Amino acid sequence: MPKDSIRDNLEGNELDLSLSNLTVVPVKEMLQLRKATHIDMSCNLLSVIPDDFVKMEWIVKLDLSKNNITRLPEDIGNLQKLQHLDLFKNKLQALPVSMCHLKSLKWLDVKDNPLDETMKKVSGDCLDDLQCKTCAKRVVVFMKDVQSEQERKRQKRLQEQRELDEKKKIEDEKLRQQKKLEKAAEKERKRKIFLEEQERKRQEELEAATDQYHDANETKMNGHLQKSSSGKTGGISCCGILFGLLFGLIAIFASAYVYCEVKNTMPACVEGRVKVMQYIELVQIKTLDLVQQIKDKMK
Fold first, then answer.
1. Can you tell me the distance from the alpha carbon of 72 to that of 111, in angstroms, rounded to the nearest whole number?
2. N or C: which end of the chain has fewer CB within 10 A?
3. Does pLDDT of 227 surpass 80?
4. Domain end position, chosen among 93, 128, 150
């Protein structure tokens, strides 16, 4: 419907769109008509009232009777100024819970709608003006109870969800701590393996150094033994030579001595005998000194 046509149907504060073959509510055009506090859209072909319809918070009286409406806006409770609501002869099976917020609602007709049994009992027959007023009060109160029950269930679900979240948080923390302990244990295990490997290498190096030290000492001792053996052999050889010379000299002096005994009248023999004895004593002294030196070197 053109905007001008809608405005043409405005008379004072009443907007009459009844019997207009409407299939869609012209919300955009109606939002421009803030003077229209009484709206009549009865006897049309409407099946749904769009959600943005509740933006017209200035509505006081709304007639939606004799349509094919199956659903009202969930936030219809935003129409805080609404006092009169006619839903007669539609196809509504339920009413929005937000109707509990319609504080100004004084008149409601829901007759000839396929409402559930509970809502039929609450709303009553709506056969006259008094029953429609009673219907408005009872529906608002009932919807408050429904909202309270829904809120209670919502809070219960939230509590259950919080408990589940807390339980999951505790389990996650336990798992985190377990992983932390496992990580620490694995780190400790690797540290022990590292220390054991270091200790093994240190022992191997120590054993190798000890073996090398023993080998070096053994070689050194063998060298000293060989040197001592050579020294002893050399000392023995020197002693043999000296003793040989000593015995040779003694033999020579002995021969000269015997000769002088036979020729003792010769002056040379008398003088030579004395010198021979002196030489023998000197050789004996030197020989003993040499032998002692050799023994000292061999020690």
1. 16
2. C
3. no
4. 150
